[in-house]
Fold these 2 entries.
Entry 1:
Amino acid sequence: MAVIEASELRRTYRTTTGTIRRRRVEVEAVRGISFEVAEGELFGLLGPNGAGKTTTIKMLITLLVPTSGSARVLGHDVVREAGEVRRRVGYVFGGERGVYERLSALDNLRYFAELYGVPGREQKTRIAELLDLVGLTGREKERVEGYSRGMRQRLHIARGLLHDPPVLFLDEPTIGLDPVGARELRAMIATLAESGKTILLTTHYMFEADSLCDRIAVIAKGKIVAEGTPQQLKGGVAEGWVVEIEVYGIEDVVLDRLRAVPGVRAVAVEERDQAQLVVVQTDSGQELTHALLSRMDGAAVGRVSSREPTLEDAYVALVGES
Amino acid sequence: MTHVRVFFIGGYIAYRALFNWMHPSYYIPTMLGAPLFQILFFAYIGRYTGLKDDAFFVVGNAVQLSAMAGVYGMAMTIGGERWTQTLSPLLATPANRLALFLGRSLPLIANGMVTSVFAFGVGWWLLDFELAAESIPPLAAIVLVSAVACTAFGLLVGAIGLRARDVFFLANLAVFSLLLMCGVNIPLDAFPGWMEAISRALPLTHGIEAAREVAAGAGFADVDHLFWTELGIGVFYGAFAYALFRFFEADGRKRATLETM
Ligand SMILES: Nc1ncnc2c1ncn2[C@@H]1O[C@H](COP(=O)(O)OP(=O)(O)O)[C@@H](O)[C@H]1O
Ligand SMILES: [Mg+2]
């Protein structure tokens, strides 16, 4: 049985915009997504900002009711059996807020240990273990207001693990951390996964999903656009070929012309110092460089190169298509 | 057992988290400075205008002061959570909500009692206020029940804070309407009938009335109806606040109004 099952989850937000003429708008944040996460799996939800990752997690941890569809965690419905779900899941989100600034890390953990019903006689050892795991031992009596971003983040993790939940939800846990801190955190996540926890991780860093996750679902604009192991996702573009063309100024019409070339899968533009890099993904093995260049008359073309595709190309192609 | 721990231990930690009145340099002026001046202010207005004696103002303000921590404090327990963005983590726990939020009232009530003792002390020391020893136990009971009722009223303000953005504005409104309407410094018979009717439905009114009679020498048996009425009003506001809280919590999960995470 799957530990996390999401079935046709949808969530719309109703908000108003404008101060004088108020207008109601509906945002379709999650538009019918389904997936399953097996026991012990580290599952990644990979997508750009605004894709609907946080909304999905909020529904799974009972903070938001789905507009339609359903989800179960360890067999418990997230709406009807919210209490059962809350007892069994831990969650961690990236960001600095969400802890009591005027309390020490120790008191923050003590408080949430009470709320999660950790028995009094187990609290002391449990909290000490967790402080050790996240590397806050020795600093635990200091008030959180003096903590760095990385320390807060590690405190969030310790809090998420207080009741030793079998299922963990990590919402962009490394966001805003420096490279060293982020790497340490990823190592910690890998350790947690090895210890047998089922983990759902969201991220907008492709390499993070690649290095940590057993399986990835790419989410864009509220929909899952691809799902599989990192290898499978790479395989989707493996037979293709990538042509990179350096240009100095390019118009959208030219890009559209490139997209129309038979055999072209996706065209993206990356800004460089003085120039732009047009990244063209093409179908299996076809060498389209000439066809592409012939449609670029008028543009000042610099260096042209071609290479094998990476997972990043797969991701860009998937997110770009949606 | 879990609920009991959430109530007592959780309530105590949350109190420290939200107020941090543990450091004396902050605690003493906040808790004792303002009350001192409030009592003197109204007592001297009374003397100047010659309308009421010192005892009227000492008792009214001392009881009112015991209740203020409750109203502000309970409103803060939810308004403050919004501020620190801890509401989501809190509501993601399986903790019993009644124990979770009622537990926070206990330190506030204790806080109120200390303020009240101090306020009566100021009245005895600096003003013309005397209290017979045998009046102290019934007076303490009345102050306690008034603080409980006001804390329940504060919980209602706090519950509204789950939906309304600015709970502090509401808390100020609540505190000043209690100060005006509950007979703290103005006798109820000075009000038109409709205002008196509102006063009778608010916490504090019956507590202050009972406290004045006891301070003037009445026994508990003479004021027990006022005592029970005050308690009943407190229970009513507490139950209403809890129902409203659960409703806003459930509705917030539907409408995504709880907090951005
Ligand atoms: N409380 C909210 N009210 C209105 N719109 C929201 C709210 N939360 C998120 N959204 C919108 O829903 C979409 C998905 O947001 P989110 O789930 O936070 O994405 P992600 O976590 O992938 O960045 C975005 O367009 C965002 O602006
Ligand atoms: Mg997000």
Entry 2:
Amino acid sequence: MLCEKCQERNATVHYTEIVNGQKREMHLCEECAREEQVGSFSFSPQLNLHHFLAGLMGPETGRTFIPGNQLQCRACGLTEREFRRTGLLGCAECYEQFSSWLKPLLRRIHGTVRHTGKIPERTGGQSKQRRELQRLKQELQAAVSQERFEEAAKLRDRIRELEKQMEQGGE
Amino acid sequence: MGLRENITNPFSKWMDGNAPEADVVISSRVRLARNLASFPFPHQLSKEKANEIIHALQLAINNKKTRAAVGPMELARLAELTPVERQILVEKHLISPDLLKTREEETRALVVSGDEIVSIMVNEEDHLRLQCLLPGLQLEEAARICALLDDALEQTLDYAFSEKLGYLTACPTNVGTGMRVSVMVHLPGLVINGGIKELLAFIPKVGLTVRGLYGEGTEAAGNLFQISNQVTLGRSEEEIVSGLGTVTEQVIARERQARQQLYRYRRDALEDRVWRAYGTLRYARLLTGDETMKLLSDVRLGVNLGFLKGPTPRLLNELIVLTRPAYITKMAGKDVPPAYRDSLRAKLVREKLKDLPE
Ligand SMILES: [Zn+2]
Ligand SMILES: [Zn+2]
């Protein structure tokens, strides 16, 4: 197959772009691909992920979208339409502002909308304690249901202690 | 050695052939996406704000804790590097091609450690992309180093973080852990015996993606593939790392089995293929980029199977990077036309292999 840009060399870089649900295949030679920056070594595992996202967001998701009543982020001004075009949010606040349609999208991508990974030490606030509290409460429930009462008492004490700590440290 | 001299040196630590499972896994990479709270994401960022981020990061990398965690690192703005130097950084896997897709070269930067194991892209899609790149299969170690760097930076930088969604990123596909782990694997055995098709179909089913490093699908030049995680939210960092690790071990086992079978049942054909490749690399006068990748793959297979003794895995890794267009251009000192490039490439490969034993 010849490169579709220069029509000279063999096409060795093949990739698919999805823009607004429309699939488009590109076949380029190494040199032209480099110029086009569809680069051989890319950090993101999926080339053109953003177009892919935009495709995922497309009209077929069945959301009600009222033109003229476009959602806009109060913090950075990004509109929903811009996100659909680029696949990129504008700021951290966007996650809050657009949560109504972001949540279903996140669920489609990740299968969940709940972070269970690392929490930053300094700026994570009480997240760590809250997660620990949740874990302890689950353990307590298990201990009670299995009639391990001595352990349950210990867990209850730790929960109280942690709750007190959080109250004092809370805003 | 300064960052710019380092760039010109074709060797990066990840090319060290002496690493765990290096007969199949060339390198392991962990990348973390991080953004700073109260700054819009890079594509919405003013020049002034973007500069503030570079300054904040400069301070953070000079911080004692950061230096203790990952050693000294150097920051350079994209604008300080020539186009060829930038491209070399891409070919050494230290930055993404996306970092170069910009007219805002004043406000994009990169940070690299002396051994090039650790690097940070600044103001690409996210404010920061922390990366650790190690030779062979070393995902846990790469994750550990990334976490150290992340903890150290967090001492002075306020990250955009939400309790529910984790680390907030410009693209929702990275939100949560912001973690992308990947391995670069060499799979000539599976490509030759056709097992690669099954693998390409299987990997997406377990939440991972696979793609050819040069080219797509089964036509990946040089039989090099990258496997990485797709999901970043709802899983812990440990789960993401061990998920890819487990699949990679299966891939290694299948690839080794394929090689052994080929060697046992099609020995003459396989040896012939390897020796022809070696001969061509040593004597050819014109080599295209793709042909070189293919020949290097064959030679590597012979080295891995133990019957070809000359070239070391490290040299073969270096040659992958050296024979890409950016290095050839760097050598020639000007923008060379493709045809002349092929002649330069062949010359370079001949030089590198000429003193090796048969
Ligand atoms: Zn072309
Ligand atoms: Zn916003």
